[in-house]
Amino acid sequence: MRWVWDANRGSPVHENATISLGPDGNLVLAEANGTVVWQTNTANKGVVGLEILPEGNIVLYDSAGRYVWQSFDHPTDTLLVGQSLRATGGPTRLVSRLSEAEPLNGPYSFVMEQRHWALYYQTKNTQKPMMYHKSSEFGVGKGALDFFGFYTAPESEGSSAFEVGFGYNMSKSESSGTHILTRPKYNTTYSMLRIDTDGNLRIYTYDENVDWGAWEVTYVTLDRSEDTNAHGSECKLPKRCGSLGVCEDFQCVACPTAKGLLGWSKGCAPPPLPPCKGATNVDYYKVDGVEHFTSEYNEGSGPVSLTQCKDKCSKDCKCLGLFYKAESSKCLVVPELGSLPRVANSSYTGYIKISK
Asked: In what residue span(s) does the Bulb-type lectin domain sit (predicted)?
């Protein structure tokens, strides 16, 4: 069994809590003392019953069979087959869990945007979400995504192979279609798409051909494939190498310190900084041949000199480091460091802020 939905994420109930469908049609989760933790807000809206449908959708329906409320309209971190994101009147994003054991909102999100989908990372230190992966554009250059559904279907009539992916519609145009992500060689009726606790987007498929039952990863967005046109590199996961680490060939290969590159371990972290007093009490150490996990989608500002770039970071209390491209004089200051993907161009350099 795999969890696929949280009703009350962030508000776990205690012993003897109850869930009840009241005579007024409101579905309520309450503590033993009667404190309401979560509800559907469907009181006096004609609800006559509750059902869990075969595709995993929980619905409250009226006497005509119409859905008054459905869990498919309130996804957390997972899309089931037939579930969708919608630009208007519905959800546009999935948000990861904090961890497998903690059903709290995590820092990662999968977002349907105007012409693509994207993965974002946000923490208390980041003013706005940081994009670390973006899909290719949908449609034919017109309109915007207004429907984005997770589907699975036989590859062709009578075929034993199934395709799994997205079906989409574009507003203000006639454009619609499908975007296939994977083609397992067995029935994929039981599949789900999830933004995982590590920030990766995966599809899990249940293989009924295995005697004891197995959920198999049939698609992963940021993986170890050499074909980064089809997939992104696992090194672009914000915390692939923890709080700080150089990532090369999908491995955490070094811990950048003021004394040079040391062996990486989970304890590798940015150096502690003094109380923020502007540019007077900080300095930097250099890391050659790296970029930030957001660099592919954010080249920073410029052209500016390296001195100006350092000054910008020094005056920003939230800046933990900067990434400078000498050939274009572009300056990217960042509030989070994390995984630093290795690049072939040695003129790409990172600078980690330290106490002077």
From this structure: 1-73
Give, rounded to a whole angstrom, the gap between the first and last alpha carbons of the chain: 53
pTM for the predicted model, two decimal places: 0.91
* Residue 171 CA from chain centroid, whole number: 25
The Cα 101–Cα 81 span in angstroms is 25
Q: In terms of pLDDT, which residue wins out, 303 or 139?
A: 303
CB contact at 8 A, 106 and 95: yes
CA 79 to chain centroid, in Å, comes to 13
Radius of gyration of the chain (CA): 24
The residue length of the chain stands at 356
Cα separation, 238 vs 222, in Å, equals 11
Minimal CA–CA distance to 255: which of 237, 267, 239?
267
Which helix (H) or strand (E) covers residue 311, if one does? helix 306-314
Query: Rounded to the nearest 5°, which phi and psi values hold at 312?
Result: -65, -45
Spatial separation of the C-alpha atoms in residues 116 and 139, rounded to whole Å: 9
109-126 per-position pLDDT tens digit: 999 998 899 999 999 888
Single-letter residue type at 53? L
Structure tokens at 93: 């994003």
Please list the residues that pair with 102 across neighbouring strands: none
Alpha carbon distance 235, 222 (integer Å): 8
